[in-house]
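Record type: ASSEMBLY
Status: queued
Input:
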Amino acid sequence: MPDASQTAAAESAAEPSAPPVPERRFSETLLEVKNITLRFGGVKALTDISFDIKKGEIRAIIGPNGAGKSSMLNVINGFYTPQEGAITYKGRHRKAMRPHEAASTGIARTFQNIALFKGMSTLDNIMTGRLLKMKSNIFLQALYWGPNQREESEHRAFCERIIDFLEIQAIRKTPVGRLPYGLQKRVELARALAMEPDLLLLDEPMAGMNVEEKEDMCRFVLDVNDEFGTTIALIEHDMGVVMDISDRVVVLDYGRKLADGTPDEVRSNQAVIDAYLGVSH
Amino acid sequence: MSAELDTFPKLLLHHAEVRPTAPAMREKDYGIWLTSTWKEARDEIEALACGLHQRGFRRGDRMAIVGDNRPRLYWSMCAVQALGGVPVPLYQDSVAAEMAFVLDHAEVGFALVEDQEQVDKLLEVMQRTTTLKQIVYDDERGLRNYTQDFLHHYDALLAEGRDFAKRHPQFFPEEAAKAKGSDVSIMAYTSGTTGNPKGVVLTFDNVLQSARNGAEFEGLTDKEDMLAYLPMAWVGDHIFSYAQSYAAGFCVSCPESGATVMHDLRELGPTYFFAPPRIFENILTTVMIRMEDASSLKRKMFHYFMGVAKRAGIKILNKQPVPFGDRLLYGLGELLIYGPLKNTLGLTRVRLAYTAGEAIGPDIFDFYRSLGVNLKQLYGSTEASVFVTIQPDGEIYADTVGKPAPGVDVKIAEDGEVMFRGPGVFQEYYKNAEATAETKTPDGWVHTGDAGFFDDRGHLRIIDRAKDVGRMTGEKIFAPKYLENKLKFFPNIKEAVTFGDQRDYATAFINIDLTALGSWAERNNIAYASYIELSQHAEVRDIIREHVESVNQDLSGDSHLGHTQIKRFLILHKELDPDDGEMTRTRKVRRRIIAEKFGDLIDALYSGQQDVFASTEVTFEDGRKGKIEANLTILEAKTFPVAASPDRHKAAAE
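Status: finished
Output:
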């Protein structure tokens, strides 16, 4: 909310001793990718990429079309297995990992093309995010009574907190397929949050949204990071959004890393400017 | 009613004693309805009052209350009143600058707000105003990094208060007993279309007497269920969801959020319901659109039984005689259509529904009544603590606002302005003696600014704002908005501007509704390239002429306004638009500007011309200017002889 930051800034000017927004510092590395190379046959999607994601930060991955951003995200959550390189997540090395293993270790994601269950309600979609947290087996779940009843109401309570958090109470019972695009994106975020992830991967969360929807989404991303302390890695095309909300940015182009640093550093990097604006040869 | 129950805190203690386990308030949170009993409400209000007291709130202090309808905000009102303070509810969507004026003017020292959004506005205001000292917030989301020491979380305040209440158990009851009925209960700021808002000062006697009279008149009991969803700063909400709840002891529920009201309404099924005409209209539109998408069997059943309801439903509700066959069909309809429909809308249990604020279309009004929903109109104002007139059961007419409410006197001033006097009449506009004197006479009559008259049935009819009412050449009154509303009730007419002041006959400009007529054109294979072309299409003219003539026919049965039938009219070539200054941002027509801008068109309406060339400058959305030109045909509408008053007297005598 722009008002908030302005007021807060004015307040801090009046009382320099107590800045209301503490400077964000991150030390612990949550995930590190080292010298990743990913090939599809003869096509090199990623070449020798290395960067890290610190615990608690908002990390953006940007780059022109075809730069390998989504591939990078797919490598991180185990959908693709890179031919070379190593991934260290929560201090553990891993090379090949299945997506469901990634999910059970606390990596959640949303998709560039919304991947929700269109015929199910918002609430049910979000509840699917709790699946890995459920303990009772499928047979118990098929019964109305029994241990599953209590468990389900606990999970429902958790989902309701997310519904409240993302302000989607009004569409709780609406089939997702009937919702406008911007809201579907929000439901997808809700489902990812229902997993209580340590690392949240957002693939173009603001694509195709109007300005107002983008502002809402930015606020939710920042709030998620702030309230739950979730580490977020996001791919985004809107430079304004990226520069405003991320702590650090890594820039890819043709599968190679061009730059890595704070938004300011990246913005003034000549190679990045050339990649985005093009250079005359 | 016993004499000592003359303030809300006293009533609270009374209810906590008499009906401790009855529900006082409900709130939907995290998808579940949470109920608080009167006993729980009392304990929380006590703790809140003690907490506020410890934070330095003293008798005579004022507290702003800003946010959506939440039990905690309603309770804070009572807590403030118990401490001898005055709550000042503000509209939650007003911007910081608007809030600053009220906070300054009312010398507000404390504020209790819902969330970060409101806190941010108040922090901005605090850089300008000096009176505001302490802010209490309910929802802490996003506020974690706010370190200001004058910001308190509601829960923290409550904990402090509980502690204090434990040590001083007599503090709250003693404080609550101190206030008298003649003390100030609330200051409600009216939004005011011109100039700064005015703070209407109401005492406990004003509010409670009005609320009790209304409740008695309608037979409200402690079993009612009410959904509080209209702004807390609006006096209507204060009376319906707060004062009458305390007066009668019924339960008030708060929706989950502004966007979920329709869902919550359905889940709750209130027995007592208020909504402005716009909301009733929206509900009806939704029903109609969804019926168009339904299967043909359902659609046919719906239309057939709606026809039955139109014929018999209203009469049954008014307890008038209805043929046995119709009664049987209506019963079947209730089973097949009306019952399920009311259930979907959350109106199944409604015993009493009010609408007020502006004219409601007779079709919309009749739709609800024919379903068996006891929808009534009332006429009120902040200065009256709401009730001026109410439609009594069995005497419901779509075009009137009913008879004077119990204890209220209504009279029509010489110039046609409606004036009233009664128990709810406000004390003064805070710190604005000039405005008070203008509005309230020394003997307690209040000017409403509305023009109206009592019809032959003794019902008040409001026709227009008093300043807009003119005279035709025969000295008979001319009420432009009354005509315009009648025209606008037709979905095909978006806007209308009527003329007749100082003229021999009435005329009108009409704006067609592009959505409604556009879809009509599509269905009837009528091609058009632009708004102008459609608006001047021969068949569109015929449709509009029919509408105007049916208004005329309707007017001809009205001895007071029958002479204002529309003789000549034209369909405007452009939509009236706030960007061009022709309307206000709230979509009210600006007569003077229209009269200047379209002067030549008005002249043409009153000359014998058959058509007129119009050329108008318009402003596009991006600020560029352009011109719209068209040849407009002047259309004539049939008028009908007015049923003269003597005839009716004769009919009555027979």
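Annotation: The CA atoms of residues 6 and 181 of chain B lie 5 Å apart.
Annotation: Confidence is low (pLDDT under 50) at residues 646-654 of chain B.
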